[in-house]
Amino acid sequence: MVVARFIQVLGGWTLAPILALTACVSAEAAAEPVEQGDQAVTADYDTYAAFATRHGMAPRSNRALVIGIRGRDLTGNVHSARVTRTYDDTLVVLTPDQRMFRLAVSTHPWETVGKAGVPDVDRDGRADVGMIRPGKYLAVRRESSRDIAGARTYQVVTAAGSDRLPGYRNTDQDDVYSAAERAASEARGDVLTAVLFHQGGDGAPAAVGCQVLDADGIRRLASEVGARFDYLLVDANEVEVP
Length: 242
Description:
Elements: E1 2-9, E2 12-19, H1 45-54, E3 64-70, E4 89-94, E5 100-105, E6 130-132, E7 135-141, E8 154-158, E9 165-169, H2 179-188, E10 191-192, E11 196-199, E12 211-213, H3 215-225, E13 228-235
């Protein structure tokens, strides 16, 4: 920047330009924005163990505890449960030796149209695909002859050992389980049977109520949990999850 300064010399005026030097400060390039989840995601075993205990399922020293978080993906983003062919929910696996890891899972159906064996609960001539309700369950490994797509499977039963699990039914065959449909299912006492943990996608049956993982996910789960595990299913739209 040029600053003009007038200096009086011998009764006259002389213009003396003075250059004022300024330091240049370089700004760092802006960092890529980081997507923030709707809920903070913790990596702490004790926090999840305390959460499960508050919801009636304390970790055991001889059995893995798996927390299914419906409506929240691995980054912490919360969404409504919808019928979609994607692993957009989260499993938190707590091992007996107090390790914790997460897996992507789908706790919702992938299909809106029921296959053979799916009941028509509202008697309108269309099969109504179901989704199990949040609650406390037990998952038991099935024999290897019943593997799906070459991967182990687990049957989900109630804490009392029944394969009749409380559930919601999608009676209008859209991609949403509405509040009205959930209330109607509770009033009817709708249940689901033959609910499994299994591999989804190619080589697997249609996901119409099962808990499905990709090939890597189901193999990691089976390698860590052994013959059975406790399963606590919650909905991130209904409770605050760590």
